[in-house]
Amino acid sequence: MTIDHVLISKSPGETRVALLSGAKLYGLSVARAGQGSIVGNIYLGRVEAVVKNLNAAFVNIGTGHDGFLGLAEIRSPGDSRDGGKGRGGAIGDYLNEGDAVLVQAGRDPIEDKGPKLTAHLTLAGVNLVLQPGQPGIHISRRIEDTDLRARLTAAIEGLCAEGDGFILRTAAATAKLESLEREAQTLAGRWHEIRLARANARAPKLLFSEPGPEIRVLRDLAADGIKKITVDDVQTLAEIKEFLETQAPGLLGGLELHKDKEPLFDAFDVEEQIDAALSARVALPGGGSIIIGQTPALTAIDVNAGGAGAGGAKEQTALDINIEAATEAARQIILRNISGLIVIDFLPIKDSARKGKVLDALRKSLAGDAMSPNVFGYTGTGLVEMTRRRQGLSLLHVLGGLDEVKEATEPVKSALTAALEAVRAVLRFGTGAAAVTLKASPDMIEALQAPGVGEAALKEAQDLLGVAITLDPAQDFATGQFDIITGNGG
After folding, report:
1. Which of 273, 281, 289, 446 is deepest in the core (most CB within 10 A)?
2. Is the pLDDT of residue 223 over 70?
3. pLDDT score for 84
């Protein structure tokens, strides 16, 4: 799977970035005002508690949730503070309550869990990742040529400050030496600025913020064969162009502004695919389906033969359905950003060689996923077990919520998600009108009136239209249902 087209849509309250392979949606990032991911941000944190039995500390970084900093995330490789026992000591050997500590968010807070933190900092560019305080040169496994790896190592070694190291990303394989040198200097300068900010900061304090999703995605996928980048906002287009000119000029030729009246995500059938990604049931090409159930503890994916199993599902029929299911399950796992423990209940197969083909299809479809999925194989109960590294919230958490009462085939959207969709529709159909009324379900109206994302989105939409938007709660409307009434203002 190669991402060849990136769609970037800016609208009141949120920025959405869709990743397409052909016409299929393989990834969606959503950043809302005040609710964006903190992954990659660097903070000067204050240690609130050191918990010996967890060998971890809870650190206040000023976000409202104390972060979790484990022993492994503060201990340097080879560091031993345990009197020579070789186990690296205990958390109390490194931190005490009240200490200020420089940390980076590795995972967003979710529900009642705070963010996961690390003291092993990284600063990412298109070609390089600077690792302050972590000496050594590491090269992406996707760069397989031995001679090229040796040349890159030799070229970068001279750019490392004492005690620091670099990771060479896949894009470095085709980068010019001047580009690598320039990026190394940029990252070193960024680290210098962070250290200066730390010297004058009082914990808790944010010292460095990762760029928005539109820049972050392009930075991280620059080497992955992107052919087109389509943007529907002029200012965002200018910001992306400025970034590409200095960091990834090879992508500039594919950058374009979406000028059609039809909304960008509608023009490429992305809205429909987002709705499908919030549904528990996903149809397979051969007539079967998979049903995805997400809970805080794990995600279970059940494979159904459906019409494809009519007449008695033989081993070969089961294999065909399972391979389709493995391919689609992998896409949905990545698209929905499902992480943690995942179990898949494929159709029963007795033959071990056929089981191997199912596992091969699943692993192949997950190849290249940056979240390091690990497929363990079939368990004794016949389920396939896998894990996927957690980073950021799942799509269901961002756009909806975990609701066991919902029917399996019913998309789940929060009132805020539905309200922001209604605001986009108001901008589309209300432009030029002297008066605009949005009639919607009461919870959608409440979402637009609540301080935060909804209120800010409503104000931005009114500024763009040049008229006030009258909100009319309709008691008989369900979440997601709305009408737009325009008039001459008289």
Report:
1. 289
2. no
3. 47
C-alpha–C-alpha distance, residues 461 and 379, integer Å: 52
Burial class, 229, CB count within 10 angstroms (exposed 0-12 / middle 13-18 / buried 19+): buried
pLDDT of 167 strictly over 70: yes
Which homologous superfamily does the CATH classification assign to the domain defined by 415-487?
Ribonuclease E, catalytic domain (3.40.1260.20)
The closest of 231, 216, 274, 301 to 9, measured between CA atoms, is 231
CATH 2.40.33 assigned to domain 123-208? The reply is no
Helices marked H in 232-351 — which ranges? 234-247, 264-267, 270-277, 315-335
* Cα end-to-end span (Å), the chain: 55
Of 310, 312, 294, 293, which is closest to residue 302 (Cα–Cα)? 293
Amino acid occupying residue 270? V
Alpha carbon distance 44, 339 (integer Å): 28
Q: 33 versus 237: which is more confidently predicted?
A: 237
My answer on whether omega of the bond before 12 falls inside 30° of 0, hence cis, is no
pLDDT band at 107 (very low <50, low <70, confident <90, very high): confident
Average pLDDT of the chain, as a whole number: 89
Helix runs in 107-203, H state only: 146-157, 177-199
Fold observed for domain 279-395: Aminopeptidase (3.40.630)
Average of pLDDT values for 80-109? 80
| Radius of gyration from C-alpha coordinates of the chain | 25
Of 210, 278, 221, residue with least CA distance to 7? 221
- Apex CA 271: angle with CA 437 and CA 444, to 5°? 35
At 488 the pLDDT is 65
229 pLDDT band (50/70/90 cuts)?
A: very high
- Cα 258 to the chain's mean position, in Å? 24
Query: Which strands sit side by side in the sheet containing 24-32, from one edge to the other?
Result: 24-32, 14-21, 5-11, 228-231, 255-257
Shortest CA distance to 336 belongs to which of 421, 411, 422? 411
The neighbouring-strand residues paired with 11 are 14
| Residue 48 CB burial class (10 angstroms; 0-12, 13-18, ≥19) | middle
Alpha-carbon distance of 42 to 481, in angstroms, equals 41
Q: Domain 42-118, what fold? A: OB fold (Dihydrolipoamide Acetyltransferase, E2P) (2.40.50)
Per-residue model confidence as pLDDT tens digits over 133-162:
999 999 998 888 999 999 999 989 888 888
Sign of the torsion formed by the C-alpha atoms of 372, 376, 378 and 380:
negative
Residue 360 has pLDDT above 80, yes or no: yes
